[in-house]
Amino acid sequence: MQEPLDPIPLSALQHWAYCPRQCALIHLEQAFEENIFTLRGQAVHTKADQPGVELRAGLRVERALPVFCDRLGLVGKTDVVEFLPDGTPYPVEYKHGSRNKKAAIAACDDLQLAGQALCLEEMSGKPVPEGALFYATSKRRRVVPITPELRAAVETTATAIRAMLSAGRSPPPVNDERCRACSLRDLCQPEALADKAELAALHDALFDPEA
After folding, report:
1. Structural domain harbouring 63
2. Is residue 185 part of a domain?
3. pLDDT tens track of the chain, all 211 residues?
4. Of 8, 104, 132, 145, which is most buried with the most CB atoms under 10 A?
5. Would you say the pTM of this structure is higher than 0.70?
6. Inside any domain, residue 25
7. Count of domains in the chain?
8. At what angle do helices 20-27 and 148-167 cross, to 10 degrees?
9. Closest Cα partner for 15 from 136, 86, 121, 109?
């Protein structure tokens, strides 16, 4: 019998997709700081984070539903799950801002939603072909098909996160445009550490004839 996997929070999928070092600082080093963007996100989740069940337009709607996927070792909590009349779950993740986000940011959101879908599939025994992201500023949803590619990305990301946690080492900083909005910038110090990493790489290659 296979040993159960150490649980990985669903939020770690999004953190890793955005920046592996951000993921390590939060989930390995237990470091976190707030900024305007994280505070806006918390404000959006105020209602969704309150557990509850209601009926709406023929749907059973559950808020703050705990979910898990033993196969991938994922655990977390959904914002909203709408259960269709046949019992099929439909996850809805709440985000601040509008749905016209940059493709790279949207992809991070999609990955987290797909992780929720895989959890709900295992728990309900029903396929979850799609979910939605609700953006607070535009008050509109963006439907996300849970494609085979997105499912594979969840598995690959979970494996990478687990390997990082097992090794106990944080990836190097990226020092690019992602750092501008990151609340962990002061803790990460991407400008200083990225320069050190570059100098170390140059030093290692100094006497390498193939470099």
Report:
1. 8-174
2. no
3. 567 788 999 999 999 999 999 999 999 998 876 554 555 555 555 555 678 899 988 899 999 999 999 999 999 999 999 999 999 999 999 987 776 677 888 899 999 999 999 999 999 999 999 999 998 888 889 999 999 999 999 999 999 999 999 999 999 888 888 888 888 888 888 877 555 555 555 556 666 666 5
4. 8
5. yes
6. yes
7. 1
8. 50
9. 109
